[in-house]
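Hello forum,

I keep getting stuck at the same step: I have a sequence, I want structure tokens, and every attempt I make locally crashes halfway through. Rather than fight my setup again tonight, could one of you with a working pipeline run this one for me? It's a single chain of 169 residues.
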Amino acid sequence: LSGEPTLYSKLPELIKGFHKREISTFLVSNGLHPEMLAKLIRNKAKPTQLYLSVDSGVKEVHERLNRPTVKDSWKRIQKSLSLLKKFPRTCIRVTLVKGWNDNHEKELAELIEKARSDFVEIKAYMFVGYSRQRMKQENMPLHSEVKDFAKKLLKNLKHYKLQDEDSLS
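Reply #2:
Ran it on my machine without issues. Output:
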């Protein structure tokens, strides 16, 4: 698949086909199509692991950072987050962009606590591709800055702990 996989109308059949062949599935979504996540649940076609990209706990920051093409993107992400508990293994993935979403830890923590994903992964923004038209190389946080953000976020989280890190990643 290329792009956002939840746009693929036959995603449930694809996942079931992989599982029938004992192949695990790893689905990464931007969360803008909760109706497909609900369809996966209804059709018993849950991926082995579901990653949901959530880059902010604040609607305005989310919209500034992601520039969504759908008007109700914030509402859609909230719905997707509410469905996470129905999947077997989940992760909320945050791409940290220095100067854009490296604050508001409390609001992000509230979303994470509500969703109760199994894991939270915080990774650094990389100055590559189309993003170079909107951002600067200075927006790439250092590993130490990603770790500091994770520690600040953890102060607002009751059900999570720092488990691992990879400076090369």
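The mean pLDDT is 95. If your local run keeps crashing, start a new thread with the error log.
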